[in-house]
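Example S7 (structure tokens).
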């Protein structure tokens, strides 16, 4: 078994994750010791032994190939791992209880390490909620769309009358629809007909926003304080409303970030204690950047592949340095 040197970076991700592969490759090129693992391997294929005695936790996290002294960990890159999986020999109600214990033991221990994260999942979870994002963005000087969250159909109709222009409806959080036959489809942003608003609005929370006329959109990926901005140009009606609806119709161009936006975005990240964020902006015909949302664990590899923006090297630099 290989024992990693002090200063290791933990990469916590699923085994088949090409985005995490890019980060591991960059760290390896820098000579940084890396232990990559999926929490789904714990505790059946991984072991953990740590102690606390008036000092930070010390001990070993190991799998069949490597072990790392946790007191020497430099940083953690956390990207959508599976949850711990315990033996099926444990039956309910103890099976669920044992899974919760494994998660609390492993993730709680990692939280206790005084290291840089990209990003801590608890912080990521708080920052990912759109209702909390927009007021913070406005407070930091960023432009945002007028928005309504409601379960009241009449309130939705009043909002549309007040906007007196096109209105869109969009999901409050990510995640696909899952069908019984195994299909998974995302829920796109769509323009609405105010006359079609009916009582089904009362069935769950809905997010309505004014339509922002746009010259193009921008995906702004921020790593620490470094910014990588790509214009996204829509080549179809569907992608003009929601570019995620038609990736084949998109073209990309690297762009610069206005100083006001740069300042606001960094303040937004600092508010939520994040070291990474993927921001979505519309750029109006007048050149104003309007923030729609930020995904604190957003995908970035396709932007790097399409534009050549060095996002993976920036993440590796941040992790290897251990400071933002």
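Recovered sequence:
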């Amino acid at each position: 078994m290989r024992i990693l040197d002090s200063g290791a970076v933990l990469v916590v991700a699923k085994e088949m994750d090409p985005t995490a592969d890019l980060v591991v490759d960059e760290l390896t090129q820098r000579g940084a010791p890396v232990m990559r693992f999926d929490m789904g391997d714990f505790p059946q294929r991984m072991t953990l032994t740590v102690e606390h005695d008036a000092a930070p936790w010390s001990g070993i996290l190991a799998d069949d190939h490597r072990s790392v002294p946790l007191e020497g960990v430099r940083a953690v890159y956390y990207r959508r791992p599976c949850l711990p999986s315990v033996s099926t020999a444990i039956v309910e109600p103890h099976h669920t209880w044992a899974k919760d214990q494994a998660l609390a033991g492993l993730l709680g221990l990692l939280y206790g390490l005084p290291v840089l994260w990209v990003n801590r999942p608890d912080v990521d979870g708080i920052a990912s909620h759109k209702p909390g994002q927009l007021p913070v963005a406005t407070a930091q000087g960023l432009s945002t769309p007028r928005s309504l969250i409601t379960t009241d159909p009449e309130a939705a109709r009043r909002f549309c009358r007040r906007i007196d222009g096109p209105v869109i409806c969009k999901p409050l959080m990510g995640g696909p629809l899952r069908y019984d036959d195994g299909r998974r489809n995302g829920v796109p942003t769509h323009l609405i007909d105010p006359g079609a608003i009916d009582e089904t609005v009362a069935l769950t929370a809905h997010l309505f926003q004014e339509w922002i006329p746009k010259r193009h959109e921008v995906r702004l990926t921020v790593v620490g304080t470094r910014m990588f901005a790509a214009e996204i140009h829509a080549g179809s009606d569907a992608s003009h409303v929601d570019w995620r609806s038609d990736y084949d119709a998109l073209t990309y161009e690297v762009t610069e970030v206005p100083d006001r936006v740069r300042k606001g975005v960094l303040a937004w990240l600092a508010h939520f204690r994040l070291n990474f964020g993927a921001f979505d902006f519309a750029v109006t015909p007048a050149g104003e950047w309007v923030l729609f949302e930020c995904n604190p664990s957003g995908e970035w590899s396709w932007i790097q592949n399409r534009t050549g923006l060095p996002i993976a090297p920036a993440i590796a630099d941040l992790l290897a340095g251990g400071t933002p």
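Notes on this example. The chain has a mean pLDDT of 91.
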